[in-house]
Amino acid sequence: MSTTFSCSASSSLETFGLVRRFCRRCYPFNCKVSQHYVSLIITIISSMMTMTKPSRLATRLIHRNSYLHPLYDPNETVEDRSKREETSSIERFAYLESKIKELKSIGNVARSNLSPFNRGSGFLVNLSIGSPPVAQLVVIDTGSSLLWVQCLPCINCFRQSSSWFDPLKSSSFKILGCGFRGYNYVSGYKCNGYNQAEYKLRYLGGDTSQGLLAKESLLFETSDEGKIRKTNLTFGCGHMNFKTNIDDSYNGVFGLGAYPYITMATQLGNKFSYCIGDINDPLYTHNQLVLGEGAYVEGDSTPLEIHFGHYYVNLEGISVGTKRLNIDPKAFQMTWDGRGGVLIDSGMTYTKLANGGFELLYDEILDLANGLLERIPTRRQFEGLCFKGVVSRDLIGLPPVTFHFAGGADLVLESGSLFRQHGGDRFCLAILPSNSEMLNLSVIGILAQQNYNVAFDLEQMKVFFSRIDCQLLDD
User: Which residues participate directly in catalysis (predicted)?
Assistant: First the structure.
């Protein structure tokens, strides 16, 4: 006995469309179908879509200049912001450089009032930890590999604005035993008398995080999937934490560095991408981080190298407009003993270039500006090359600066990524000399990565650059 299915014209077009696609015999309109049947078909279709559609872990990044940031100040002047950004860039570079020096065991580790992040840099991300989940606000860092948050009970902790995580109240919390896989990548690892794995992160200036290594569940609020839960992830539960600055906007670090087993970059799928729009616009909300298989691994690529837990790329040259600068190919290369090289960083605003490349770029920009822009003497050495005017008005038609990487990938810096407004009538080059006699290190900061999706594929060992409006990735 056969059954004839059809649809009622009174059914919604959306519901009818779903039923018709599921059952081709539902055309043309020639009889009625019960509401129960329509509901059944919709349930089946929804189940099929749920089973076949992969989850995509895409979460919003909150920049320091965004109105969503806890420290956002609508009354902050352009001059105050530029001072904050350039100061934090100098300090971040010193931190990275000293960290590498220590790992290389070259000379003495510099001791200054530095921490990996201060009030001027870094992107924040919202996540929740534990069962039941407790909301946290952490800063992402491609320069470190461990996720850690402050945990109760706190023997010594810094002030935080978000909720405190109490592992004793979480049903999914599990302390790691000694000798777990990846322990050798953990800074300050030791095994205590209870066969528990401990860590101690020591930052410059005396900042520390110390506690137990454990497994826990993370809940991410995503831009396209609602909420995604990831379980059994290694992290640091910090019971003793000290921070020299008064920034209480974050209460932990989300490590995306290159050390396997402990970094979220490998725990969540060996791929991640971030898309950065206009960090100068406080209302721009489309900066995003994608973790795992859903990462946007598109565009031109360049080989990725890992040294000292950081992501290095091979910068082969620089062009201004169509003119390729005559930079010594060795200027950006890493030497046999680990000096030099170019790393990509998520926490530094400005870019620092080894002197051999910076000087030629500096001279070329100065030549282009000669007779067109009025140069302003700088009060501080690291401000570099400054002119009178407004970036958006006076640099129209300025040739872009292009970073050329091995493999054919390019990073194109328009005027908004090349210069930074330092006041109402003054702007400065946002690329600074490394002035590093010891390491000759170069770091590509986040300003140079504006308007790009940058993807890291740790299986192919490649970095991908794709110029795009990040808002398109939300659609």
Answer: 141, 345
**CB 259 within 8 Å of CB 147:** no
pLDDT single digits (tens) 335-372: 888 889 999 999 899 999 999 999 999 999 999 999 89
Give the separation between CA 99 and CA 117, rounded to whole angstroms.
14
Tell me what pLDDT residue 379 has: 66
Give CA–CA dist 159/155, Å, rounded: 13
Report the pLDDT value the prediction gives residue 341, as an integer from 0 to 100.
Answer: 94
Name beta bridge partners: 190. 198
Query: Among residues of the chain, what percentage have pLDDT more than 70?
Result: 81
Neighbouring-strand partners of residue 307: 310
Q: Look over the chain and give the mean of its residue pLDDT values, rounded to a whole number.
A: 83
DSSP state at residue 283: T
HEC states along 363-403? HHHHHHHCCCCCEECCCCHHHCCEEECCHHHHCCCCCCEEE
How many other C-beta atoms are found inside a 10 Å radius of the C-beta of residue 406?
A: 13
- According to DSSP, the β-strands at 342-344 and 442-444 are parallel
SS3 state of residue 388:
strand
Longest Cα–Cα distance in the chain:
92
Q: Are strands 351-353 and 431-433 parallel, antiparallel or unpaired?
A: parallel
- Peptide bond between residue 132 and the one before it cis (omega within 30 degrees of 0): yes
Return the active site residues: 141, 345
pLDDT in tens, 136-194: 999 999 988 999 999 999 988 888 878 899 999 999 999 999 999 999 989 889 999 99
Domains, the chain, ranges and CATH? 1-36 (no CATH), 59-92+104-288 (2.40.70.10), 298-474 (2.40.70.10)
